[in-house]
Design goal:
The chain has 292 residues and is mostly helical. Helix content is 65%, strand content 7%. Strands 1-2 form a two-stranded antiparallel ribbon. A two-stranded antiparallel sheet has the order 3-4. Helix 3 runs antiparallel to helix 8 and helix 4 runs antiparallel to helix 7. The chain starts with a helix and ends with a helix.
């Protein structure tokens, strides 16, 4: 009886296998992806396959094809985030990769209000443009180090780490705003070295914030990784220069036309920056406490 039961199970298994073979279709997949698209999961079904991907840079690639597929039906499907409906070719060249991440670096620091306010406050108390560039250089050295270190994973992965860094960035704005409220004076080599070192240390903090954003838009095993990382960093520097070019002429004119104007302008900007950073400190600090 057991022998007949075993034969029956084998026959049912064979019938089921033949049935599945008859209803299934051959699924052929060919992926030609650039470094911005990550395949998360492929699910095979009886009538095809489902492809799950992560498509970052949505707002940046709004005028480009984000995913082009050619399924078994032979009808090409072009998926975009918005706007453009004509065929657009996604480039895979390192040159276009550099362009993309250079622009992304600029966009990030311009749209990141906390970074804008920090650079703004850093500019307020510098008497001359060379002194300002010296301070920004220190900030650049600092954030370049931690941007790379954070991107390659040499940082803690605990849930509290990102809120801690974001809270620290807000506090750094308050500190630099307080420094800018002091009356600018003739600086010595020693004092400028101290400011340079301080800017460098605070840059380490902000660089970690940059790395969090870069992790969302660039995979660590992507092609052109070095070019993309360098381009993003250069984009951040270009964004800083744009901020300086926007505020420095106003400070220069006010300082050389009427000292009272310069003082009022400096106090107004620093106070607003400090107030905004204080609100962020409480908000981010609360978020930090909630995950500890």
């Amino acid at each position: 009886m057991k022998k007949h039961h075993s034969y029956l199970i084998q026959l049912l298994s064979l019938a089921l296998a033949l049935h599945l073979s008859a209803i299934s279709q051959t699924v052929e997949a060919h992926f030609l992806l650039n470094q911005n698209i990550k395949v998360r999961h492929i699910e095979h079904t009886s009538n095809g396959a489902s492809l799950y991907t992560k498509l970052p840079l949505i707002y940046l690639l709004g005028d480009k094809a984000q995913l082009t597929t050619d399924p078994n039906s032979g009808k090409t499907q072009v998926n975009r985030s918005k706007w453009v409906t004509s065929n657009v070719l996604i480039s895979h060249s390192s040159v276009n990769s550099v362009k993309t991440f250079l622009l992304q670096g600029i966009v990030h620091i311009i749209e990141g209000l906390d970074h804008v306010l920090f650079v703004l406050c850093l500019s307020l108390s510098a008497l001359t443009l060379p002194l300002l560039l010296w301070r920004v250089t220190g900030f650049t050295i600092g954030h370049s180090i931690t941007l790379s270190a954070g991107f390659f994973g040499f940082i803690p992965t605990a849930a509290w780490f990102i809120p801690l860094i974001e809270t620290g960035i807000a506090i750094s704005i308050i500190y630099v705003a307080w420094l800018s409220l002091r009356k600018p004076s003739i600086t010595t080599t020693s004092s400028e070295r101290t400011i340079f070192f301080t800017a460098c240390m605070l840059g380490l903090l902000h660089g970690l914030g940059f790395s969090f954003v870069l992790h969302d838009i660039l995979s660590i095993n992507s092609p052109n990784i070095c070019q993309s990382l360098l381009a993003f960093n250069l984009g951040v520097e270009a964004g800083q220069i744009l901020i300086i070019l926007a505020i420095w002429p106003l400070l220069y004119l006010a300082r050389h036309r009427q000292q009272a104007w310069e003082t009022q302008l400096r106090y107004s900007i620093a106070t607003m920056c400090c107030a905004a950073a204080l609100i962020w400190t409480f908000q981010r600090g609360y978020g930090l406490i909630s995950v500890i």
